[in-house]
Recover the amino acids of this structure.
């Protein structure tokens, strides 16, 4: 089983558990921006140059670089230099499973709204 699929034991030391929650929150915060989510989604299809990511989100290069720096520090992406350009890829493609889970929550919310309205 890959390391990222290892389930944590339910009974952990409270201090360790709090540390795990803080680490998870740091990663989720690194994803918590529409431009970062768009970049992560684009990187799910493979490695991209910073210039491609800049076109995707429509921000200036310094803003895109800052977003990538935040995601790299959180361990979401990794970079490789090719001449003058930096190319980024997902470090752990399983992060897209989290995105699919969010979509399921959004879709479930829409279904709940529709069901509620129908029963009125």
């Amino acid at each position: 089983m890959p390391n990222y699929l290892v389930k944590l034991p339910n009974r952990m030391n409270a201090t360790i558990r709090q540390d795990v929650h803080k680490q998870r929150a740091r990663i989720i915060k690194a994803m918590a921006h529409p431009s970062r989510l768009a970049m992560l989604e684009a990187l799910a299809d493979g490695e991209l140059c910073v210039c491609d990511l800049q076109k995707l989100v429509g921000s200036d290069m310094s803003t895109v670089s800052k977003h990538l720096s935040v995601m790299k520090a959180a361990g979401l992406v990794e970079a490789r230099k090719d001449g003058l350009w930096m190319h980024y890829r997902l470090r752990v493609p399983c992060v897209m499973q989290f995105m699919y889970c969010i979509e399921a929550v959004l879709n479930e919310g829409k279904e709940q709204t529709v069901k509620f309205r129908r029963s009125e």
Q: What stands out?
A: The radius of gyration is 18 Å. Confidence is low (pLDDT under 50) at residues 116-120. DSSP finds five helices and three strands in the chain. The first helix runs from residue 14 to 31.
